[in-house]
From TrEMBL:
Gene3D superfamilies: Medium-chain alcohol dehydrogenases, catalytic domain (3.90.180.10), NAD(P)-binding Rossmann-like Domain (3.40.50.720). Residues 10-342 form the Enoyl reductase (ER) domain. The keyword Metal-binding applies. Belongs to the zinc-containing alcohol dehydrogenase family. Coiled coil: none annotated. GO terms for molecular function: alcohol dehydrogenase (NADP+) activity; zinc ion binding. InterPro entries: ADH-like_C (IPR013149), ADH-like_N (IPR013154), ADH_Zn_CS (IPR002328), CAD-like (IPR047109), D-isomer_DH_CS1 (IPR029752), ER (IPR020843), GroES-like_sf (IPR011032), NAD(P)-bd_dom_sf (IPR036291). This is alcohol dehydrogenase (NADP(+)). Keywords: Metal-binding, Oxidoreductase, Zinc. It comes from the Bacteria. PANTHER family: ALDEHYDE REDUCTASE (PTHR42683). The lineage of its organism: Bacteria, Bacillati, Actinomycetota, Actinomycetes, Mycobacteriales.
C-alpha cells in the first residue's frame, strides 16, 4: 500500500513530502489510519545524523495515534474502528527473559524500533508515523481509552509519558515520596504531572525560572533555578528519586547530594559524553545512579489508562506537516511549550 509521508532524504537534510510503501498485512497485523503524529527530539537526532546510520530516506515518528481500518486474519485484541497508539517499538524477539516479563523495551535480542529498525521478518527498515497510514503487530498496539478526549495531547505520552512513568513506578513513587525533576521540557513537564498525580512532593530543577508558573500549575511544590549558586543547599539528603530528563551535560554530584538514604538519580536522556560521579557521594548514603529506557507494552497501556483516569496530557502545539522542518528548528532553539504534534490529515 502506497501512502503519503514526510521523509528525510539524507542526514541533516530537510524533510520532504514523499510516498512510501507499507507492507501487506500479516496475520497478526493491524492497519492504522494515523490521526496524530508527535515530534520527539529523538526524531531530530536521527534525522540530523547525531546517531549515525545509513538508512535514508527515512520517515521518523514514534508517537502515533490513529484508528484501525483493517486487520489480519488472526487479530483478536482489536477491531476496525478502535482508536490505538503506537510508541517507540513495533516488535521484539518475544522469548527472552525481558520479553517474557513484559519488558520488550529491554529485549535481549534487540527490540525493533518504530522507525530506523530492522523488520524481523523481511529485513526492511521500519518507517515511522510521519505518514497517513502504518502497519503494526497487534501485540505492540496500545488501546486509547474512550474518555481520553485530547488525542493530540495524548500522542506524546507514547514516548514522553512512558519514559517518565516507568521509572516513577519502578522506584515506587507514591504519597509521601519526594521527587525531583531536572528539566521542564517535553519529558520534564509530563514527569511533573505524573509524579504529582501519584501523590509525590515534586520539585523542578531548571536553568532559570522562566517556566516556573507552568511548573507550579502542573503540580510542582518547588521550582529551583540551577543557575543560582548553592541551589542544592536547601535540599541536601532530601529526595527519594530524581529524574534527569535532559541530555545536555550536567554536573551530577550536586544533584546526588540531594538524594536521601537509598535515593536514586535516574538518567532518562542520552548525554553525549560519559557521566562523572564521585564515589563517596553514592557510598555514604547507599545512593544509586541509574538509567531507564521507555517501557514495555503492558506498562505503556497502564500509563495511558492512568493518564486518562487523572486527566493528564502533554502540552502541545498542533502543526501541519509542511511546518515539520520549522518545528525541528524551534525544538533545537527550545522554542516550544512543550511538544509539537502533526495533524496527520495534512500529510
Amino acid at each position: 500500500m502506497d501512502v503519503a509521508c514526510y521523509q528525510a532524504p539524507g542526514a541533516g537534510e530537510p524533510l520532504v513530502k514523499a510516498t512510501l510503501t507499507r507492507r501487506e498485512l500479516r496475520d497478526d497485523d493491524c492497519l492504522l489510519e494515523i490521526e496524530w503524529a508527535g515530534i520527539c527530539h529523538s526524531d531530530i537526532h536521527t534525522v540530523n545524523g547525531d546517531w549515525p546510520h545509513d538508512n535514508f530516506p527515512l520517515t521518523p515518528g514514534h508517537e502515533i495515534i490513529g484508528k484501525i481500518v483493517d486487520t489480519g486474519s488472526a487479530v483478536k485484541k482489536f477491531a476496525k474502528g478502535d482508536t490505538v497508539g503506537i510508541g517507540c517499538l513495533v516488535d521484539s524477539c518475544g522469548h527472552c527473559d525481558p520479553c517474557e516479563q513484559g519488558q520488550e523495551n529491554y529485549c535481549a535480542n534487540g527490540a525493533t524500533g518504530t522507525y530506523n529498525g530492522v523488520d524481523r521478518h523481511d529485513g526492511t527498515i521500519t518507517q515511522g508515523g510521519y505518514s497517513t497510514h502504518i502497519v503494526c503487530r497487534e501485540d505492540f498496539l496500545v488501546r486509547i481509552p474512550e474518555n481520553m478526549d485530547n488525542l493530540a495531547g495524548a500522542t506524546p505520552l507514547l514516548c514522553a509519558g512512558i519514559t517518565t512513568y516507568s521509572p516513577l513506578r519502578h522506584w515506587g513513587v507514591g504519597p509521601g515520596s519526594k521527587v525531583g525533576i531536572i528539566g521542564m521540557g517535553g519529558l520534564g513537564h509530563v514527569a511533573v504531572k505524573l509524579a504529582n498525580a501519584m501523590g509525590a512532593e515534586v520539585t523542578v530543577f531548571s536553568h532559570s525560572l522562566s517556566k516556573k508558573d507552568d511548573g507550579m500549575k502542573f503540580g510542582a511544590k518547588n521550582y529551583v533555578a540551577t543557575a543560582d549558586e548553592g541551589f542544592n543547599e536547601p535540599y541536601k539528603s532530601h529526595f527519594d528519586l530524581i529524574l534527569n530528563t535532559v541530555s545536555a551535560p550536567l554536573d551530577l554530584p550536586p544533584f546526588a547530594e540531594m538524594l536521601a538514604l537509598d535515593g536514586t538519580l535516574c538518567l532518562l536522556g542520552l548525554p553525549p559524553k560519559p557521566v562523572e560521579m564521585a564515589g563517596p557521594l553514592l557510598v555514604g548514603k547507599r545512593r544509586s545512579l541509574a538509567g531507564s529506557a521507555i517501557g514495555g507494552i503492558q506498562e505503556t497501556q497502564e500509563m495511558i489508562d492512568f493518564c486518562a483516569e487523572h486527566d493528564i496530557s502533554a502540552e502541545v502545539e498542533v502543526i501541519p506537516a509542511e511546518k515539520i522542518n520549522e518545528a525541528y528548528e524551534r525544538v533545537l532553539d527550545s522554542d516550544v511549550r512543550y511538544r509539537f504534534v502533526i495533524d496527520a490529515a495534512t500529510f
